[in-house]
Structures are given as C-alpha cells and as structure tokens.
Amino acid sequence: MRRFIHTPTARSASLLLLVLWAGHLAAQTMSTYRQPPDPIPAILDAPPPPVLSLSGDQARAVEMTRRGLPSVAELAAPAVETAGLRINPATGARMDQVFVNRMALIELASLEWRDLELPEDLRAFGLRWSPDSRRLAWCRATDEGTELWVTDTADGRSRLLGDLRVNAAMAQPVVWRPDGAGLVCLRIPPGRGAPPAPMPPEGPEILANEGRAAPSRTFPYLIRSAHDERLFEYHAAAELVEVDLAGRVQLLMDAAIMTDFDLSPDGRFLLVERLHGPWSRSQPWWDFPQETLILDHGGHPLHVVARLPLADEVPIRFGSVRPGPRGVHWRADEPATLCWVEALDGGDARRDAAVRDALYLLEAPFEGAPRELCRLKDRFAGLAWGRADMALMWESWYQDRRERVWRLDPRSGRRTLLLERNSEDAWTEPGRPQMVRSSQGRSVLRFSPDGRHIYWSGRGVGPEGVRPYLDRMTLRDGARERIWQCRDPWYESLQAMLDDKGDRLLVSRESRDTPENTWLLERPARGAKRPRESGDYQARQLTRHEDPAPVLAGLQKEILRYQRSDGVDLSATLYLPPGYRRGVDPPLPALFWVYPREFKSREAAGRVTSSEFTFSRPAGISVLFLLTQGYAVVADPTLPILGEEGAKANDTYLEQLAAGARAAVEHVASLGVIDTSRLAIGGHSYGAFTAANLLAHTGLFRTALCRSGAYNRTLTPFGFQGEDRNLWEAPETYLAMSPFLAADRITRPILLVHGMEDPNSGTYPMQSDRFYDALKGLGATVRLVRLPAEGHDYRARETVGHVHWETIAWCDRYLKGVIDAGDGDASAARPGD
Hints:
Blueprint: H1 8-24, H2 40-44, E1 51-54, E2 60-66, H3 72-75, E3 80-82, E4 85-87, E5 100-107, E6 112-115, E7 124-129, E8 135-142, E9 145-152, E10 158-160, E11 174-176, E12 182-187, H4 226-236, E13 238-244, E14 249-263, E15 269-275, E16 290-296, E17 301-308, E18 326-330, E19 337-343, E20 357-363, E21 371-376, E22 379-387, E23 390-397, E24 402-408, E25 415-422, E26 432-433, E27 435-437, E28 443-445, E29 453-458, E30 461-462, E31 465-466, E32 469-474, E33 480-485, E34 491-497, E35 504-510, E36 517-522, E37 538-541, E38 556-563, E39 569-576, E40 588-593, E41 597-599, H5 602-605, E42 632-635, E43 640-642, H6 653-670, E44 674-684, H7 686-697, E45 703-707, H8 731-736, E46 750-755, H9 765-777, E47 782-787, H10 797-816, H11 824-828
Parallel strand pairs: 40-42, 40-44, 41-43, 44-45, 45-46, 46-47
Antiparallel strand pairs: 1-2, 2-5, 3-4, 5-6, 7-8, 8-9, 9-10, 11-12, 12-13, 13-14, 14-15, 15-16, 16-17, 18-19, 19-20, 20-21, 22-23, 23-24, 24-25, 26-29, 27-28, 29-32, 30-31, 32-33, 34-35, 35-36, 36-37, 38-39, 39-42
C-alpha cells in the first residue's frame, strides 16, 4: 500500500512532479493498456465464482464454472451490427454471450461430485435439463459455428448431437421435447452461402414521417442501408428443426427470423413468434412487425394468434405497451392452452381508463373465439400457473407505484386479493412463490402435500435489517407461517425447496468473513438430536469456494443510517481498508459512489435494503479495489428524488441531490474516518450523470470520476431513467438537470471514461465526447478515456485493469497529491484534440 507522508520535502517533490506532468499533458496520447498496482491484478485474474443449475427432479445439480474476463481481442472480434443486434458471425451467437468452461455434477442425496466428460476448449452456453433430469443439452461455440451437445448424467459422457450449426442470434435456440426423446432447435440453414458483400450506395438514405407521433428513445446498431437489411436477414434467419437422440434431423419450419418458439406441454404443438418486413430504419428488431402462430408437430400452420404492425407509436409514458396480443405463452398446467394479454386502453398510459388489460385463454384445437378470463384495472405484470383451480396473477401501475397480487381461479376467472402494496416499499415486498418443474419440464406452483398451501420466499427487508425467509401460505385465507429464516451472523438466501414440505432446502450462505457457498439444510427425523444452527435444520456444506481476495480479509463494512435536512431517512454502506484503526489513524481520502432513485413517498425512500452480513470482495470494475490503496469507499449513499403528492420528482432534482449528498458527507465525516478536503464523487451511467451534477452544483468534492454517463438531456429528448415526460413537456427540467449546460460551473478536475461501443440508449459515447469538448473549451481540468471494443459495462481484462489504473492514478493525484515516478509518461496522456 502506498502512503504519502505530508512533510515539506515530500510536498515539494510532489508539486514538482505535478508541474512536470501538467507540462507533458498536451504532448502525449495514450496508446497502451496499463496494469493497476498490486494486489489488484491477482484478484482480477481469480476465477469467478461458479453457479449452480438444479435438475427438474431436484435430485442433482450442475456446477458451472464461467470463464474469467475475456481479452480485448475477443471483444474486438468482427461483429455484425444491425437491427439493434451485435452478432458474432463466427459463432452465430450474440457478441456478449457469457461462456462456461467447466461443468461438474453433484448428487444431492450423497453430496457426491463428478466431473463431466467434456470437449477441450469448452465455450458452453444455454444449458437445458431434460424433463426426466437424465440428460443435459447445451451449446458449444466454436470458430466454425455453434454445435449442439448432450450429456448423459448417468455416466457423465458428452456427445455431439447431429450435424448442424445452431443459430443463437435471436432467441434461446434449444428446447427439449416434453417426453425427453429429442430437442427442437434453431439451426443455420445448410448451404446458406457467404454473407452478403458490401454494395455501393443505390441512392440517398431517407427517413420520413407524415404527421404521426412516433416517439423513440435513442438506439444503437439500427438498420441504415439495404446492405444492413441483407446482413440482418442472413444472420438472423434460422430453420426450426427437431433432433432426436440419435442425431437425426427433421425440418419443421423453413428459414425465418424467429424471436421465440416453444412446444406445448403435451408436445403436440409449436408456438412460434417471427418477424417480417418491411424492416424499420428507426426502430430495433423488437419493435418490428411480428406474427405469432401455432404449428402442429409436423410444422404445418394451424392458427395465427397475432399479426402486429411496427411498434413505433407506443407512447414513452411508463406503463404504455404495444397494442394487440402480448406475452403469448402456453398455460403450464394444461396440455395445450394458450394464454395472452391485450391492452383495452390502446396501450396508452396517458389515457384515463377504468380497465387497462384483459387476459385471454384459447384451448387446442384453437378454433373459435378466445375466452376472456378477467379484466385488470392496472397493467398486467405476471402469472404463475398452479392447477385447474389456482394461479397467481400480478398487476401494477407505475404512475402511483401500485401493485396487487391475486389468487386467480382459471375456471371462472374469479379473483381473491392477496396483497395490495406500494411497489417502492421494500418492507412490504411479498417475495416470490416457490415453483417446481412438472413432468413436462414446466414451471408450476409448488403445493403442500395436502394441496392447501403454497410457499413464498423473499429478502425479508424490515426494521431489523435483511433476513431472507421461507413462508407457507394457507390458500383459504392467505395467512402465512414462517418455516425458515436466516439468522445472524449469516446472510442466507433460499435457492430452492427440495421437497413439498420444506424439510430440505438449498441455500446460499455467507458472512462478513466467509465467502458465499451453497449449503443443504435438512430437518432431522423425529427423535433425532436437534441441530444447533439454522433454526430447526441440520446444515451440510455443498460447495467450498475460497476467498478470491484474502488480502482484503478484515476490511471493515458498516451500514450507516442518517437523515436529510428535511427529515428523509437515508443510508449508505461505509467500507474501510483492513487494519485501519478508527480514532488512531488519520482520516482517509474517500470516494462516494452514487446512483439516485426516484420515489413517491419518503417512507419508501428511507428503507434500508442492504445486509451488513454479506461477504464483500471486489471483482471486475468494482470501486472497492480502492480499499487496497488506502482509500475509504462510501457505496450507494441513498439519494432519493421525491415526487410527493403529485409533484414531479425531477423538477427539484438538483436541490434534493445536493441535500442528500451533503447529509452523507456530514454524517460520514462525523465518524472521524474521512478527510472532507479529500473527497471524490463518482458513478456509472446515471451515477456518472449524478457525479457530474454534484461537482458542478456543490463544493463537497475535490474531483469526480464518471463512467459511461449521459450529460446533455436534450440528446435524450423522449425520456430517461425515471423521467417519462419529453423535452417539450418539461424543458426547464431537462435543461436544469444537464451538467453539460453547467460545464462552466465545473472548476475541479473530472475524469470521464466511456466504452466506444456503448449500446445503451441514452449513453452514446458522443455524450462523453461532447462533454469533454465543452469542458476543454472552458479551460477545465478534464481527462477522457475512450475504451475500444467496450460497451456500457467494461468486460475485457485489459480494459478493466486499465480503468482501475486510471482511477487510482487520478485519485492519487487529486486526493493524495501523489504521482508514482514510473507513471509520468502514461499518466500525462490525454486524448488528442
């Protein structure tokens, strides 16, 4: 750990280095990636924690080890960018696909582990359990395309299934037949030939609109030319085929651009959603005209569920939806019944309407009119199917944050209200119902053995903190009985129930000093010795993941609670380096890492939703790496932007933002652990926007670190974040909230970082480019770091290491007054004009 001793000699040497560096700025342009100081590289190179995939019968699980950070060369590989997509032309999958390089099988009864026989150079994704849990299907990406593989869990052997290339550009490409005898998948048409070659322009590119209101947020990679259209058709089109376990292939549907497909629970029908032209030059693929249809097992069309036009007239108001059938799916508890929802208000959330949506059912053979099951006052928000007389249904309305949960009888449409709540209020979160896989591989509600109860699990946020739980709910009256709840000093979260009584549970467990692992909790048989931990359960450890950053053992973490000047309750998480002695060591330089949120009520805004018992180690791009360099970090100090009693939250954004930040700084300073003259503010995306505003409108911070932000709200004129008014409806708010227009108020150093391929609507790289130009033109101290091949988040190992290097070098300079002697040239680098 580097420490700066404030002696006159050291101060003079530091100032000399600063002068030399400043004189060097204009002459250098950085061209190489830099490594952050130790011990950060070793932590970045540690493998990420594995994840578990539980079989449908819940008798076994597969532990999947994900690959570490990819190289920048992988991210910079040629990509096809069209219709809102970035496709890897070699693999036929998305460019941001995450791969698994190892899989191991775990028998949950015996806790026996077995490595599976897998091909070398494994890049697997899309794992699917067969309905009988005897096999695994998964995709393997290669430089010649994506293959389909099957693993037998009895002997652990894996084999290539069929001679085909899977197309994973648009949808999850593989589903099992309900009988487990084969799979249905999307394949690249054999012999499709070479991709379309670039072509000379045939004329000007023209966009036109004839008086229709068609608001749209900004989207990347749109179709801009005839060549883009041909690339989209070439790479997105796939045939629908069935593959049996011997590898024999049967064509079900000719090549089309399919965005979803699914077999009915009885396996007799196929639900297919496909796109059709003309392709839009202003909308991404998910707004293109689409058709939803039913095919029989042989691939013959039987019924058209919906034909929807281009969705370019949907209002930007939250709660607005596409008119026509949406969310079309198979009812999970019946052989072949379709379900979907349609807006009764035209999909326009701006309209006053007594009812918003209606739910429909249509049974095979899909003849006649659909049955209207029920109407909803608010917008449909989800379904969980159970049995003939029981389902759960959610509805919500964003404008007043209302949420309802209903018990629904699918036979009659009769509903019983289980819960009505403010969706912002974490203390009233109902949790989620426990589901189980049916024999057809469908997810349905888990019932108690007597059929009179269902189960709910949740985070358990309340006045005492965060305590995840499992409840049994009586269907007759909705009463809940607590079966299990995590206890201090552990943070445990339910992963799965393994039986219908709640006698066997799979949980993740961690503590401040112990990394997260999976544990099996079992109630002992009657008469057996009672366990000493986890309530009435005996605990057995299933996985044994080690601390990826033991150098940070002993870091100090504390949940802070305090108030804003107007009485709104706030909170933050304070992190201090290992070995720091409060009251003995001097106060530390600190980074406040922020991300504001909008609320309708101060009660909801004040809820603490973080646990003090979680295991905290940095990974990837986390700012907690600053703890290794002698900094304090104040993570997520809550900055609620309230819009109470009909007021629009963002109309007082700046005032509330400054008040929240001031309260955070004053409270942490009162603990004696931070030096208020050496504070940085930072954030990512909307947090970067926030950090720039705080630097412009308060004097609390010496510098700002802004990653992937948007700074000029006139460039996002049709809404952003929680703002659904457009620029012309709220011009004063858009202008006041734009730090770009307050660039002349930014007189302290600011570091801007942005991925050059950022696809996030509203945070185009242009936002940082223009903000840098404005600040430079006004004489500010500013540095812009453009990251090749990176999107909104940063993934490449070289990039992640370099961003940490930039962050530490910047904080060392402006919070500690230190420049390492070996960093002079690279630290001096700044983008050319």
